[in-house]
Design a protein that fits this description.
Blueprint: H1 24-30, H2 48-54, H3 138-141, E1 159-162, H4 180-188, H5 196-206, E2 211-215, H6 221-236, E3 251-254, H7 258-271, E4 279-282, H8 288-296, E5 301-304, H9 306-314, E6 325-329, H10 331-335, H11 340-347, E7 359-364, H12 369-375, E8 384-388, E9 398-404, H13 410-421, E10 425-429, H14 433-445, E11 450-453, H15 459-471, E12 476-479, E13 492-497, H16 504-511, E14 521-527, H17 536-545, H18 552-560
Parallel strand pairs: 2-7, 2-8, 3-5, 3-6, 4-5, 6-7, 9-14, 10-12, 10-13, 11-12, 13-14
Antiparallel strand pairs: 1-8
Helix pairs in contact: 5-6, 6-7, 9-11, 17-18
């Protein structure tokens, strides 16, 4: 599986469009997987109506009826990249879609050692993309997220710590005994007050303990592990040298998507500013020579996606003998069937210190019990488990609304909502890569500036899409699960679930793209009773736990579902407690200034 392509992105199967007798509107409304491969090639000088005709988007050319937005058969599109170059659309110019970036035919898609792509006689073209360097000005490095009006409410969040002899929480950065350089960088970054996960995690990491931390989205988990690791490295010294063929970083941070590891890298760069510590980021879709060059300049902290990390270790450009800290961000995803095998390969690599010789940290907003059991292979037996807030629950700063909308009405309802939202940044989530492109193209035809991001897009296109979204050029981003976890984009005020995910974990992560750092956000979900019934029960509970209104019709659907639960490959419970509690009579709980409740059985079970 590619670094950025999670199993939650439904595989697109099948081939071209068929004459099934469905109307164009029906085809677009239902978006059956594999109906059409998409990439809409609009020329700058094409009028909108003509563009929709030439790209197969319904509508008629040269002054005939206004395009309806429906898809006509008659053209097959690639699904790897859009050339949304019409009005109010981000421009992803890929040229003739039958050709690769290097000019050769792209018949086989993205075939790789993991078995993706296939059906083609030729291998994928050589990756030549080199990303632009990040800005080096101090102002750009320390640009920070503005906290919202509800940031102070974090002080009232319930915190639970389980495990033996946890260190006491700290109430201010000064209590962590960080060096002056780190203290200055923290202030420059706009961090003046600790969040709950930081109050508990920082002293635990400083004490050298392994940690599994579970906190709501947007609660400051990245700083919770970066700051104490940097403090240790500043105290102990570092060994990286640009003259070494093989770099041996002291810290490796692994995350599931390219966008997230790049975000962690930018935070590492911020806090390490003015120190001897050099962070490096590596991920797929980048020219290998460029990646190796970045590593050989010196590497103390390596931020990586799993596939590229194993690749670079196999090339012997990264050694593991001096590794002290292993961090898994979005750890539930890193350990499930999406990345679990790669993580097991990582800890089995030659030179990897055994778990009793390294410090392992895991952070996520959700930790199902099955994942906790898998984590035992990575963590020392005396690890500490920190729970912040309603685990598996949505942030209370997100106003959640569920609308009953059938498949064929979703597009019109989406246009209605986006027209009312205006230029405010909005993320629209769908379940498949093809639908992301379909929907983005349709919205462009409706004169709504839109771009899309998913795992089949070239890295250059993904970065350009995020840039257009962040800059406001395209205030609407249609996304698959690639963007659901960890991605922190300022001023995302709305999240719309065009398709509800199959698991409630993914729902929580999706709506967590808004309402971050005490800011207020809104999440609207389209619920189709015919396809979304299995998620009704857990959705009702998430809404109720966050003190959101639960529609009567949704409660009826949830009740009619009985004890069926919901479709999830990882079971139907959030892990709200340390799974070791099942085998231990009494746990040590720690408040450190917060109200702490007694941990009991998993009351977040949907049954």
């Amino acid at each position: 599986m590619a670094d950025e392509d999670w199993d939650t992105e439904i595989s697109d199967q099948g081939s071209g469009d068929t004459d099934s007798g469905l109307s164009a509107v029906q085809k677009l409304g239902s978006f059956p997987a594999g109906t059409i491969e998409t990439s809409c090639n609009f020329s700058q000088n094409i009028k909108p109506a003509e563009a929709s005709y030439r790209s197969g988007l319904g509508g008629k050319p040269n002054g005939e009826d206004k395009p309806t937005g429906g898809f006509e058969s008659g053209r097959t599109f690639e699904n790897r990249g859009n050339r949304f170059e019409g009005r109010k659309c981000s421009g992803f110019v890929r040229g003739f879609q039958g050709m690769s970036d290097s000019g050769g035919p792209r018949w086989g898609g993205r075939g790789s050692v993991r078995g993706r792509g296939g059906f083609g006689a030729f291998t994928s073209p050589k990756v030549t993309y080199v990303p632009p360097p990040p800005p080096n000005s101090e102002d750009a490095i320390f640009a920070h997220y503005q906290t919202g009006i509800n940031f102070d409410k974090y002080d009232n969040i319930l915190v639970e710590v389980s495990g033996l002899d946890p260190p006491p929480a700290i109430m201010a950065f000064e209590e962590a005994n960080l060096c002056q350089t780190l203290i200055k960088n923290i202030a420059k970054a706009g961090y003046f007050k600790l969040t709950p996960v930081q109050k508990y995690s920082i002293p635990i990491v400083l004490a050298g303990r392994d940690l599994m931390a579970c906190a709501q989205t947007g609660s400051g988990k990245t700083a919770a592990f970066l700051l104490p690791i940097l403090a240790h490295m500043m105290r102990d010294g570092v060994t990286a040298s640009q003259f070494k063929e093989q770099q041996e970083p002291e810290c490796i941070i692994v995350a599931p998507t390219r966008e997230l590891v790049n975000q962690i890298f930018m935070e590492s760069r911020k806090f390490a500013y003015g120190t001897c510590i050099r962070p490096v980021v590596i991920y797929g879709g980048i020219q290998m020579g460029h990646t190796i060059h970045q590593i050989m300049q010196g590497c103390n902290i390596l931020c990586a996606t799993p596939g590229r990390l194993l690749d670079i270790i196999g090339r012997e450009k990264i050694g593991l003998n001096k590794l002290k800290y292993l961090v898994l961000d979005e750890a539930d995803r890193m350990l499930d069937m999406g990345f679990g095998p790669e993580m097991k390969k990582l800890i089995s690599c030659p030179g990897m210190p055994p778990k009793d010789k390294r410090q392992t940290l895991m952070f996520s907003a959700t930790f199902p019990e099955e994942i906790q059991r898998l984590a035992g292979e990575f963590l020392k037996s005396d690890y500490l488990f920190v729970v912040v807030g309603q685990v598996g629950g949505a942030c209370s700063d997100v106003q959640q609304t569920v609308l009953q909308v059938n498949q064929y009405d979703k597009r019109n309802k989406l246009v209605e909502l986006l027209s009312g939202i205006g230029d405010k940044r909005t993320m629209v989530f769908v379940e498949t890569k093809k639908k992301a492109d379909f929907l983005a193209t349709f919205l462009c035809q409706e004169n709504i500036a839109t771009t899309s991001i998913h795992g089949d897009r070239e890295q250059r296109e993904r970065e350009e899409a995020l840039h257009c979204f962040r800059s406001g050029k395209c205030p609407v981003l249609v996304a698959t699960s690639v963007a659901a976890r960890g991605l922190d984009i300022e001023n995302v005020q709305h999240v719309i679930n065009f398709d509800l995910p199959s698991t409630i974990d993914d729902y929580v992560h999706r709506i967590g793209r808004t309402g971050r750092c005490g800011n207020i956000g809104k999440a609207i979900s389209f619920f189709d009773p015919y396809s979304d019934g299995p998620i009704a029960q857990p959705l009702v509970k998430v809404l109720a736990d966050a003190q959101q209104e639960v529609p009567a019709w949704l409660e009826e659907i949830a009740c009619s579902a009985g004890g069926i639960g919901f479709s999830s490959p990882r079971g139907n419970t959030f892990a709200s407690v340390d799974s070791r509690m099942v085998f231990r009579g009494k746990e040590n709980q720690h408040s450190g200034g917060f109200a702490v409740s007694n941990i009991s059985t998993a009351d977040e079970s949907w049954d």
